[in-house]
Design a protein that fits this description.
884 residues, alpha+beta, 38% strand
């Protein structure tokens, strides 16, 4: 029975086909009387010709028309035209829950929200005497206004469920569904009593609801099989796997709700949809400060306890009733207490990486990045209700992570791409390519993601697409980039950091995502906004707070320190985040001046201090020993100061700063072969460019100044060529050569990262690091070429350093292990098997963290002696403390 556009059914004019629905074919139509769009369902001829069915259909349709509920599809009219029975309903735009679940499980918050809406609709229908009897994902429509239930009460079967599967299933159920190999849709949601041919009631709907909720959370049907018989056997005899085994992030109480919905005996299920609704609302509440949701008292139980207390008081008398009520009424608890706890990292994790921490809005879940035993950096998720963190698969080399608003997925940067992946598992999805230098992402509730880049603040849809720059870097003001964005709750305004080359000059700014208008607020970095409207940001290791007037885009008053020991990095990154419920998560910085030192070490021996100083700050790789072994050049970052290269006399511990100019950062020193000059990178022109300076005194001289960032790596032994690194492709590093008298040329520039270049002492080879194998490894390539490269490391490696006599090549295997490879250089390069050189806790940063002395027996390193424990601190109800 097909209708063409223009067909009239009473006052309704068909305008198009919508598809096949539970009660037959569905059409889009126009109500000519009220000039509105409606949906019309045409009943199957086999049923429409049955007078008893038509009478029941008409009676139930009129009953449904009285149901006025936001999550029930409204029935407007029922009629008959030229022998065609039809039903006129509310026109809905969206997708069915079945279509949504075909894409995978729903985020926990979204599943809870949809479940609450369905349970609310069931409660309304059951109170009106209407039982659905065919609740399934195909009968739930997801719209912008929420879930809408379809086909209420129209699927009542007059016989056993197996032989009479219901009106709503007949038109859309293919023949032969009992044949082997066919998966039966409707049967998967039938209660045991329906399968056995018994009468269904409201508790049958509750069973079906449990099946639907199970599938929403886990992405799998509670009962499945290859034939109708196997599905029915599963419903009658077996229990589905516990939800927690398929979705570890599901609240424990949610599993209890579903388990009781799926009880085989109707008497053991929740007895009303209202029971289910209230349990779901309780499960959706934020966790208690102690995280002990399992021992909380549900709202209905609390209400019953109060009534019992009041009844006992009335039995004694009016005066006693009043006293009893006062005694039973809970006292005003006042502000919730602040609770602190330390979260240790898993045994399989070597250390947390300082690439940020992200907390869900409800404070129940947080993320951090860490190195595993295999040396690979991944993201880890920790729920406060659980004892252990879990690795998020598919997040290798991830950084700059941000949780989705529903805490079901995470967005991150890895391998030059912005990706997202579900916390529950599955392959990551690529949203877009990103340029090198991305610092900070934020996934906002308006389904957009912003991230900081050298071009400015960039926005892209959470579903992926073409990113666009919404706040641009002002190069004329010598802005290097924008980083660490945080969208405010209005979804129209963003906080971010304007980077001017150092954390001491960085500014926290605010901008409109609609117009790009912006305003600098305070000196600092890594902004967040607290639920009470306070602006939070960091300076060095301090977390500060100041009142923020979002409308006027300004701060009110002076910032005050609120926390003194937050781990920060030299790029302005800070290891803290604040949830909407006031839960603070951060990593402690440890004692200032005690986190790093310059240290001597030998082969498989301990370390000793290389310089006699208590330095309040940290050192940047790479430390470089002069050719004669007397001096050490290293970039330093004093607390509250700029990056500066310092020369240390290793015999007398005399410290001499290299003057690169006022308010200018300098890093990456490289000695000339004769030891009279240093090449280094400086931000004099606003980006990292290459300069040189005489070590005996003098002014810096530019060697290479051009757009982009570049820094020196190694001089050829004859001093004629300088190898340097440059940010080439949007997401990569390349190795270039700068002749003494000539133009720079690319030497190693591929789709992969090439870095850490080091000339061999005889000038015939260039060692470098590349990630072309999927992880970082050390290679050597003939210089000046041509010739094939040779892999040096066998199990990952970075930071190659040659022995001065050319007989060994050293490299770093992980953050603690240094390796040595014997070398014979000539027309060919002969390599020995890598052998352990030493175990030392080196800092993790770009550039080599160690160097070899001329004698080849001693080495100098930037040793990481961080006094802070490798753990995270969780502070619940921190807003109470912030207010004080």
């Amino acid at each position: 029975m097909s209708l063409t556009p223009g067909t009239r059914l009473g006052a309704y004019e068909v305008t198009g086909t919508l598809g096949a629905g539970g009660m037959g074919e569905v059409y889009r139509a126009r109500d000519t009387r009220l000039d509105r769009t409606v949906a019309i369902k045409i009943l199957p001829e086999a049923l429409a010709g049955d007078p008893q069915f038509r009478a029941r259909f008409d009676r139930e349709a009129r009953a449904l028309a009285t149901l006025n509920h936001p999550h029930i599809c409204q029935v407007f009219d029922v009629g008959r035209e030229s022998g065609t029975e039809f039903l006129v309903m509310e026109f809905l735009e969206g997708e069915t829950l079945a279509e949504r679940l075909a894409k995978g499980p729903m985020p926990i918050d979204a599943a809870l929200r949809t479940a609450i809406e369905i349970a609310s609709a069931l409660d309304k229908a059951h109170r009106s005497g209407i039982v659905h009897r065919d609740l399934k994902p195909g009968n739930v429509m997801l719209t912008k206004a929420g879930a809408k239930l379809l086909d209420f009460g129209l699927a009542k079967a007059s016989g056993p469920a197996v032989s009479d599967i219901g009106v709503s299933a007949l038109p859309t159920t293919p023949r032969g569904l009992t044949q082997q190999g066919t998966i039966l849709g409707t049967f998967q949601y039938m209660a045991p009593e329906q399968v056995e041919g018994q009468e269904a009631d409201a508790r049958s709907d509750i069973f079906a609801f449990g099946c639907v909720l199970y599938e929403m959370v886990t992405g799998r049907r509670a009962f499945d099989g290859k034939s109708a018989a196997s599905v029915m056997a599963a419903i009658l005899e077996r229990e589905p796997p516990a939800m927690a085994t398929l979705q570890p992030l599901a609240p424990p109480h949610l599993g209890h709700i579903v388990t009781r919905c799926l009880a085989k005996n109707p008497e053991e299920r929740w007895q009303t949809a209202l029971d289910v609704l209230q349990e779901l609302k309780w499960a959706s509440l934020p966790a208690s400060p102690a995280g002990a949701t399992a021992v909380a008292v549900p709202p209905r139980a609390r209400g019953r306890g109060w009534l019992l207390g009041a009844a006992a008081g009335l039995a004694i008398g009016a005066a006693a009733a009043s006293a009893s009520w006062m005694m039973m009424r809970p006292a005003d608890p006042g502000p919730p207490p602040v609770a602190r706890l330390r979260v240790d990292l898993p045994d399989s994790v070597r250390d947390a990486v300082n690439t940020g921490v992200a907390v869900s809005r409800d404070g129940r879940t947080f993320l951090y990045s860490a190195l595993g035993d295999d040396g690979v950096q991944r993201l880890y998720a920790r729920q406060l209700a659980q004892l252990e963190s879990t690795v998020i698969r598919g997040t290798e080399n991830a950084s700059n992570a941000s949780l989705s608003p529903d805490a079901a997925s995470v967005v991150f940067v890895a391998d030059g791409q912005l990706k997202k992946v579900a916390l529950s598992g599955g392959p990551p999805t690529v949203l877009c390519d990103v340029p090198d230098g991305v610092l900070g992402t934020h996934w906002h509730a308006n389904d957009t993601i912003v991230f900081g880049t050298p071009a400015g603040i960039v926005r892209v849809a959470s579903a992926g697409g073409t990113p666009d720059v919404v706040v641009k870097v002002d190069s004329a003001a010598k802005e290097v980039d924008h980083r660490w964005p945080h969208v405010l709750p209005d979804g129209k305004t963003v906080l971010f950091t304007i980077w001017l080359g150092a954390s001491t000059t960085a500014q926290v700014a605010i901008a409109s995502l609609e117009t790009g208008e912006r305003q600098a607020l305070v000196q600092g970095t890594y902004p967040r906004v607290a639920p009470n409207g306070q602006l939070l940001f960091t300076r060095v290791r301090s977390l500060l707070s100041v009142a923020l007037d979002q409308r006027q885009m300004r701060v009110v008053g002076e910032p005050v320190p609120v926390l003194e020991d937050v781990q920060t990095s030299n790029n302005g990154n800070s290891m803290y985040d604040l949830a909407a419920d006031g839960t603070l998560v951060y990593r402690q910085a440890g004692v200032a001046g005690g986190s790093q030192r310059l240290a001597w070490f030998g082969r498989n021996a301990g370390t000793t201090a290389a310089v006699n100083e208590q330095f309040a700050g940290f050192y940047h790789p790479s430390p470089r020993i002069s050719p004669d072994g007397r001096l050490l050049a290293v970039a330093t970052h004093p607390d509250g100061g700029d990056d500066q290269i310092v020369l240390y006399d290793l015999d007398r511990s005399i410290r001499t700063p290299i003057d690169a100019g006022p308010r200018v950062n300098s890093r990456w020193p490289a000695w000339s072969p004769d030891g009279t000059r240093l090449a280094f990178a400086s931000t004099t022109a606003g980006t990292w460019d290459i300069y040189s300076i005489e070590t005996a005194g003098g002014r810096p001289e530019p060697l290479l100044v051009r757009p982009g960032d570049q820094w020196p790596l190694s001089w050829s032994p004859d001093g004629r060529v300088l190898a340097f690194a440059e940010r080439g492709r949007p997401a990569g590093l390349d190795i270039w050569l700068l002749p003494r008298d000539g133009e720079p040329t690319a030497f190693l520039a591929t789709q992969f990262d090439e870095r850490d270049a080091a000339f061999s002492p005889d000038g015939r080879w260039l060692a470098f690091t590349s990630n072309e194998s999927g992880r970082l490894e050390v290679y050597a390539v003939p210089y000046p070429g041509p010739g094939a490269k040779i892999r040096v490391s066998t199990d990952g490696g970075t930071e190659p350093v040659w022995a001065r006599n050319g007989t060994e090549l050293f490299y770093r295997e992980d953050e603690r292990s240094l390796m040595a490879v014997s070398v014979r250089s000539g027309a060919a390069l002969t390599l020995g098997r890598p052998q352990p050189l030493a175990q030392i806790q080196l800092v993790n940063d770009s550039g080599a963290a160690y160097d070899a002395a001329p004698d080849g027996r001693r080495f100098i390193a930037i040793e990481d002696a961080n006094s802070a424990p490798p753990s995270l601190v969780v502070v619940q109800n921190w807003l109470s403390e912030l207010g004080r």
